[in-house]
Amino acid sequence: MENLSGARDANDRMLERAIAIVEAAAARGVVVRMVGGCGILLRVRELHEWLISRGRRAGDVDFVCRRSHRLALPDLMVSLGYTEDARLNALHGRVRNVFFGQDEAMAWEADFFFDQLPMCHVLDFSGRLDLDPFTLSPVDLLLGKLQIVELNEKDVLDIASLLATHPVGTEGDGVIDVRRIVDLTRTDWGLFHTVEMNLDRTAGRLGQFGLDDPWRSRAAEAMDEIRLKIHMAPKSPRWKLRERVGERVRWYNLVEDVRR
User: At 170, phi and psi to the nearest 5?
Assistant: First the structure.
């Protein structure tokens, strides 16, 4: 069995690397925020031991960068000892940049997207990168997971931990602003459908992961509240037309590996 202390230390080191990138970027006036696993791990410190016990590891670091700061990234990352993926960045540089880091223990990847996360659904974070100094806001971190059509166990753990540790509401630091989810899903049936499926999937597996109360109850209540809010919200005409088609037409983007 893997040593849990070693896993804890490895996660902490990856978080330190991610924080160092955000701080170095800020010193140069470049706006960069954590998304994905490292962003969520930074937000859910209370559940680190549980996540580690379930095998949650941070293998890479992912970020959203302000699009207007894109050209400053290569110099920044080289100054921090990273190597640029020159081929990928030349082909896809307006959407995504990738850099490689390495130390005596391991190698890892630093992945940057610009203002948007173009995955199964395109999430736009323009004007939202200043809501927190290190990560995307809790609701944007959550949406980054809820938009994944082929949800895996790691994603379910991330969703559960965010919902267990952050209240659903409309105001206040550390709150999952449900208005953001409602605003996006009331006009986009495809995103609504994926979010609803993933809330159901997570709720259905919540009892399988050994998450103690009150964390489990908080996560379940949060999922119920989000599901209720998105169902009650008035829908746009486009949403209603797309609902009639349903799953007969694919409602999400195929996420291709851009290295191919």
Answer: -130, -15
